[in-house]
Amino acid sequence: MIMSIMYKNEKITYLLPPIVIILCNVYLFYIIHFRNDKNYEIPNTARKISNQNEIHHQRSKYAFATLATPAFCMGAVVLGHKLKQLHGDKYDRICLIPPDVNETWVDVLSQWWILIRVQEYKPMMHFRRSWTKLRVFDMDEYEKIVYLDTDLLIIRSIDELFDYPQLSCVPDVNPPQICNTGVLVIEPKKGTLEKIDHLARVEMVRLGIGDQSSINAFFRKFTPLPPYFNTPRANEPGLQMLLEKNQSRIIHFICKKPWKCGRDNLNCGCGYFDLNQVWWDAWDEACKNNNCIESWDEPKATKKPKKNKS
């Protein structure tokens, strides 16, 4: 009797791993092919809400673009200010904003950007909000777009980036064979987002939850940009010369952002703390003759954003 029970237990233990694997595959198949998260599908909806007579000149088929979520609107102010300061209105400046960016921030950002209200895009609900930036790959009204994350500080002219082909980017610090998607040269084409979306859903276990891994997997290879086009603010070998000798054109504020550190906590981030003050100087310069608000609150996903009364 005891031997029989032990045999059955061993048999169950032997069968358990393949059963778990089968159940996991069934669940993944379900959420990929049958689960319909209405908030995160890919509707072809985009609405320009800026005054085009003030900003949108369409002088060129080239554009700079970014994505501003509520927690990163302050970064978008500085980014837009530096782009306008260095390049004027030679190129359009496009800023994608999700539904929870309120009307107060719309008024602020429209001083520097053509704002396009877009449905937030994430292949799965638990993926990062930065996936929404992949919508720029479908903006084929432009021949070429230079995408820039909002946690960047532009130091000097960068329009030579438009001379590079798709997909151009600075190699990541670790591992260097990976494209860092903070700065991207893109040649938009309708349907690209749908293809990336399909890849993300089919291979999400391997790719993880980051938009960067899916972009790398989709394009497979990239044209490396010089590191001064995307220099992380970090104590990393090889970056110190660019930062200390002021040779960088774009500083990337990885880790905690200057606006989240605050004005009184400048020793915050991943090294080179004096760059926090450089960012705040750019903010003050941008807001000297423009309307700004110092706020980076991120609304909770379960609540609808409240619109500020004008």
From TrEMBL:
Transmembrane segments: 12-32, 62-80
Record's keyword terms, sorted: Membrane, Transferase, Transmembrane, Transmembrane helix
Membrane listed as a keyword: yes
SUPFAM superfamilies recorded: Nucleotide-diphospho-sugar transferases
Keyword Transmembrane: yes
GO terms of molecular function: transferase activity
InterPro entries in alphabetical order: GNT1/Glycosyltrans_8, Nucleotide-diphossugar_trans
PANTHER family for the chain: GLYCOGENIN SUBFAMILY MEMBER
Name recorded for this polypeptide: Glycosyl transferase
UniProt source species: Tritrichomonas foetus
